[in-house]
Amino acid sequence: MAFFGTSSMLIRAGDTSVMIDGFFSRPSLEEVLAGPIAPDPAVIDACLHRAGVTSLDAVICVHSHYDHAFDSPVVAAKFQVPLIGSRSTANIGRGYGLPENLLRTVHDGESMTFGDLEITFVESVHCPGDLVPGEIEQPVVPPAPYGAWRTGTCYTLLVRHVSGTILVQASANFIPGKLAAHSADAVYLGIGMLGKQDEQFRTAYWHEVVRATGARTVFPIHWDDFMTPLLDGPLQAQPLLMDDVVPAMDFVFEQGRRDGRTVLLPTLWERVAPLERTGS
Description:
The chain is an alpha/beta fold. The protein is 24% helix and 21% strand.
């Protein structure tokens, strides 16, 4: 796997490659507030080149906010692969001009197979404090205000391979008991806005995602300032005005220590084999 900040990542298994979100343009705060905004094809191409992405089998959106779905249709079009996600994600793809044969809408519990990877979509919820909730009912044609990229349905992803299972939980929230029937070896755990929640919420989140699935390795994600350019790296934490990353990060590392789980911070662009780090 390779990590690109927020919850954007590339999953590779043999000749199969699946992109999750793929948010590369990362308009600045000033650009977002002034609006409207649109993907930057030159930045997207430069990031894909830096990441060594030469082919893909699918692009998956965990939900439809701009920091997840903004560039996804551009990447899908570049490689002529399906854009997969909610009805809202499909309307983003339509607005960008993707043909219907490259738009796939998934439902709770549905699984798809790509080469040696099986990916199951489990419905979830966005972290508390969602600024642009709701469904996208019409195609989003960029440039558009950032609020045009509404949440839609959120998904937790279970990525299964013969060597084990990776869970991607992009948003720091949970549906009680939803993951109890699933198991994972490693979790990419979204901690955005977790620092602004109380200890009871954080503990319940850890229990419902990490303990419930039995994951032995945890990679904190979605903690970085996604309004700074990726190619200027390394990643920077969200400013305090936007989020309080320190208590969230402290909680995850301390909870991992107490539970005997390994917590590792993913590094921008670095390719890792997360299932080899589970200790299982």
